[in-house]
Every structure is written in structure tokens, then in C-alpha cells.
Amino acid sequence: MGRLSGKVALITGGSSGLGRVGSELFAREGAMVVVADVVDGDDVVDAIDAAGGQASYVRCDVSDEASLKSAVAHAVEAFGGLHVLYNNAGVMLSDDDGPTNTSVDTYQRTMDINVKGVLLGCRYAIPAMLDSGGGSIVNVASFVAHMGAATPQVAYTASKGAVLAMTREIAVIYARQGIRANALCPGPIMTPMLAKFLDDDTKRNRRVVHIPMGRFGDPLEIAHGALFLASDESSWMTGQSLIIDGGITAAYVTPE
Fold first, then answer.
1. Is pTM beyond 0.85 here?
2. Read out DSSP for 42-105?
């Protein structure tokens, strides 16, 4: 018996990066996984099927309300219900910088995906989860929801703070209706999204020096945190922030 046996899980941004790792892990743990992404996810579904799991892909733009409504309907139609919503989709745009030079368009695009996408996912998933007897919402925030970033990224940081606050609100509203909501707050993980910003040794070393453990995180380490929050193992945990960051938020001074 897997830790998510019998559960239906919808994972936004599930075709690549942290989302793909999460999709494959959830499937290995027995979940019926809906891979929801603007990027084609057929290869993820094929990999899950080949490993003996169950999955289905649906195209989903989390900034579009109709698209998320359709994705949730697809999950219910394909697998008969919904028990886990993993709001993983997010962006960190290349021209995101400080407050005086980050464009309003960049700020708005970041908020539309990182914050509105979480809201819309919850808007349509929660009724389906209530119909399914309850469940767990995992919203991806970031360690920068708790502290300022060493590298200016004001739109991204603001968006992740908003996700953390929204998660607490949702958790309180639905605590007595069988739905839990928690925020997953990763530190720097070497995914394709981060790699494009840290494209030389100098940039990588500047970031690593702030991590007490001296290395970037592995995507599977974050996926295991999401699995814990999605599973019944965290059944008395809601409205919380699970920080997996190699010790960054615990440190006052980090080693050089």
C-alpha cells in the first residue's frame, strides 16, 4: 500500500522540474495523478504508466480561470474524485529585480501565475474535494516568503509571501470540513528554472555560500515534503509552512 493509495491528485506544472518529480513520486505512492500544465505532459504520463501507475494529462494555464475549472473537471471525470491539490506551477521571470526597476507587467504576470493560479486552483478543487470526503492542499511558496532574497526578485518574493498568507486563510476556513492546506517552502533547488539564472560558477557560488549545508537541494527532497503534506501522515497539520532549505532560514551568519 502506497502512502497515497486510492487518492486522486492534481498537480499543476506537473510536466517538468519539481512538478514532474512530484507527479512520478505521487504515482509511485499509489495516487491517480492528473498532470496539469501548459507544457505537454504525455511523456510524464507514459513514464508513470510504464512504471505501473495511473495518470492523465490535461492542458492547464493556471492564470486562466476556465482552464483550471476544466482541469478539475477532467480529474473528476477521469478518476472519480479529487483528494489532493498540489499547486506547484510558478514562474520566476528574468527581469524581476528591485522595486524601482521591475516592470509592472513583470509584477502582474508573476502574480497572475504564482498567486491567482493558487487561488483559482483552490476555487475549483475545494468543491470537488468536499464531494470526495475531504483532502489536502499543498501550495508551493518559498523560503523567501519568510525572509528577503539575497538577489533582488521583488515580484517573486511578494508572490510567495501572498501564497503563504492565503494558505493560512484557506486552512482556517476549511479546517472543520475535512480539508487541510499547507505551504511548502523550498530553498534553492537546482531545477531548469533556477539553472537559467545561475549559468556560471560565480553566480552559483554566490548563492551556495548562503546555504549552511553547502549545496543546492535536490528536486526529490522537495517532492518528499509535498508527499508528506499530501498524505494522511500530516493529518493534524494545517495552515503551516514546511521549510526545506538546507538551513538558510535558521542561519544568522553563513560560512564563507
1. yes
2. HHHHHHHHHTT-EEEEEE--TT-HHHHHHHHHHHHHHHS---EEEE------TT---TTTS-HH
**What are the grid coordinates assigned to 101, written together?**
526597476
Q: Return the ∠ at Cα 159 (arms to 93 and 151), rounded to 5°.
A: 55
SS3 call for 128: helix
pLDDT digits (tens, 9 = 90+) for 86-131: 999 999 999 999 999 999 999 999 999 999 999 999 999 999 999 9
Distance of CA 65 to the CA centre of its chain: 18
Give the residues of the chain that fall short of pLDDT 50.
Answer: none
Examine the residue annotation and report whether 86 is marked as an active-site residue of this protein. Answer: no
- Please, what are the domains in the chain? 8-187+219-250 (3.40.50.720)
Contacts of 75 (CB under 8 A, 6+ apart): 8, 10, 34, 56, 58, 81, 82, 128
| CB-CB contact of 196 with 190 (8 Å) | no
Please tell me the predicted confidence (pLDDT) of residue 106. Answer: 98
Which 8-state DSSP code applies to residue 249? Answer: G
Using left for φ > 0, alpha for ψ between -120 and 50, and beta otherwise, residue 3 falls in alpha
Contact 118, 68 (CB under 8 A): no
Check if the beta carbon of residue 8 is closer than 8 Å to that of residue 134: no
The one catalytic residue in 57, 86, 107, 156 is 156
